[in-house]
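[Target chain]
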Amino acid sequence: MPLTESNLPLVVEFTADATGVGKTLAALRIRHHLDQAGIHNVLVRIESRGVGQPLRQGDVFIAVEDFANAARMAGGLAGVLAPMSAAIIAAARNRSVVLVDWAGGLAQHHLEHLAQTRFDEQLAGMRVTGLCIGVTTNRLEHMRQAAANLRAVATTAPGMHRGLLLNSRFGTFNFIAGSQPATAYRDLLKAAQNDCALLRFPAVVGESWKTAEDAKLTLPEVVRCSPSVFAKRTGLDPFTAAACITEVGAWLDLTREELQRVLRFRATA
């Protein structure tokens, strides 16, 4: 890698076994990166009903609860995910990007979908580039799951690019030599060898982004907000609101260089 405009159209998937590892934040950050480059993109959000997240016109929502109906649909799981397939087919025509935010706990369903649909072969047939990004924090089980998923994607969909996003939300990835986390981290990096792009996101945002997310603010809206507007939307005082805006803006700056290594679009340089 990196991927550039020459790799459009593009599908980027975000997966993890666990919840709360930063998949949705990663998807929204890459969406902002694409917006700055002037590249049209559609977000496919696969999540439980009632989980609030602002979607744009043209975005796709697929309820996790609908997976229970897969056995009664043509194509099974692929039938449930037909709206996602339609978005990918449209992206192939207009050379745009589809971002797929798989809900936590659906990593196995994701792998089943890759296998059943021969996903990488389908993308290749449409001349669409595929990138699957596994997201993990520094927690032991998260790293073990991410390593297993990276290896499974490489076997199930060898035609797709792979990525690993290390999210420092719960702390850094510096471990005591010989400890279980150190061993798991070493195995994770081994699973990410060769063709896997490595991204590191700092934990600068902390609860500042969670506060904005709960208020249904998007990343661009946060950085455009005045402290008074942010305070009104979130219920915070203006001083705390200003600090939250500053933290989110700093995080955007820190992640820009990381993203540019993997998705090198000229307008974001």
